[in-house]
Amino acid sequence: MITILIGKVLRASGVQYHVYSGGQHYICTVRGKLRKGLATTTNLLSVGDDVYITPVSAEQAVIERIAERRSKISRRSPGREPKEQILAVNIDYAVIVMAAVAPDFKKNRLDRYCEASLRGKVKPVICINKIDLADEEFIRREMQIYEKLGNPVLYTSARTRHGIDDLVDILRGNVSVLVGSSGVGKSSLINAVQPDLALKTNALRESFLKGRHTTTSAELVTLDIGGMVLDTPGLREFALWQDSSNDARDIMLSFPEIEQLSRHCKFRNCSHQHEPGCAVKQAVERGEIEPARYRNLIKLTGEH
Ligand SMILES: Nc1nc2c(ncn2[C@@H]2O[C@H](COP(=O)(O)OP(=O)(O)OP(=O)(O)O)[C@@H](O)[C@H]2O)c(=O)[nH]1
Ligand SMILES: [Mg+2]
Ligand SMILES: [Zn+2]
User: Which of the ligands is closest to the CA of residue 278?
Assistant: First the structure.
């Protein structure tokens, strides 16, 4: 008799997958016939995937089938032949971490992550960390636009534990992924929530450590407060992945204030750049849309 179990992929590294099923951890390979799906994605399975497995020993199993995904967050893989790189699937929240200090505090990075999350049916939460090193009032003013649009924004310090309770409220009972550049404090934040995880963290030192990532692989871990969280290695680039399921209009997902206005543009397929009767351009000129938001929208549209 063949036993088929349902499990969850906790770690995905190349050809091997760590799957948790019924209190047991299995190292899994993938049934050959599943591999044909690899053409457009860099990774066939992703952390968070629910899978059907057949155990071949107490520690090993074969993945037979991947359950339908309810959400995902992907980016366009760097390199000449871009593919979709799926960072995580079946997640509730993408906690987009940015440090409150230069050079990391760049709002335009947020739009990209928010857009990718919303496209994949993942709720974005913005987390401004290292608030102990910044003027919180100033940062809050800078972030007002995101709060007004209904994005949860957290102001945290993994060092002083300021705002960690707010992060706990988001993580509790949900499946979340922390994303953002290297060194912003993703691993430190998860450690602040649950110290016994003891995730490796690092001070980025000038030149010699530059570009090195402290977190090198990602594992979905279970939290004592309930829920699961995935720490990820900092990404240097985060380009949007475009596939047939999202068209040009989807770029507007993280720009609801502009999307609203665009319905009044004279042309339905208005690019909001040079068309006459463009309601968006007019609103920018009247100061009703933040110019930086407009510039960022045009930039993201151009990357399609
Ligand atoms: N002052 C201050 N420093 C922090 C805070 N959070 C993290 N750090 C420091 O920032 C450095 C980087 O933190 P990590 O947690 O390793 O950053 P990361 O985002 O996980 O980095 P990668 O794994 O490379 O992507 C470490 O030296 C931390 O001690 C904070 O809230 N305030
Ligand atoms: Mg890390
Ligand atoms: Zn327009």
Answer: 3
